[in-house]
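quick one if you have a minute, typing this from the bus. theres a chain ive been looking at and ive put its sequence and its fold in C-alpha cell form underneath. please have a look and point out which stretches look like helix strand or loop to you. anything you notice is useful, everything is just below.

***
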Amino acid sequence: MVQRLLVGETLSLDLVNTEWVEHGAPVDFLADADAADVWFRDYGFDPESERLDALLASRRAIRECLDEPGDAADAALNDVLSHGHERVLMVEGRPEKAIETDPGWYAAWSAAFAYTTLLATQPDRVRQCAHPDCVLYFFDTSRNGGRRWHSMETCGARTKSARHYRRQVSVEKATDPR
C-alpha cells in the first residue's frame, strides 16, 4: 500500500490530499481498495457501509472548488451535499446535532460539509503548497498566516535548495572568464 504524504489536515483537505504527484507521476491513494478501507477507518467511518464512488465524487468536487472555483465547482459540491443534511434536535433539554445521509454517503457528505465549514470560518487559511510541482493543500495554522509549503522538510527544502542552486549557477556564470 502506498504511504500518504500529508495527513493531519482537516477531513476535507485530507481527502483531497489522497491524490498527489510523486517523481512526476500522479498517485491516487484511494485507487487501492484496501487503502480506501484504511482511509474510511482512519476517519471513523465503517468501510462496509460507505461507497467509494461517493467519496471520489466528494474529492473531485472539493478539489474543483479549490483549483477552479466558480459555478461548476459550486454545483459539483452542492450535488455531494444534497446527499445529506445536519439538523438540530433537543435531547433531554439540550440541543444536539443529527446528521442524516443517503446510504453510503456519510463519509463523502461529511468531507464536503467540513469543507464548507472551513470556508465559513477561515477561508484565507486554506492554501495550496507553493512548490510548483505539488498539488497538496493545507490549512495554515501559523501565527502570522505566512506558511507557504505543506511541509518544510519536503517541498520547502526542495524549493530553497533549487533557489540556492540557481544562485550558485548564476554566480559561476558571472565570474566565468570565458
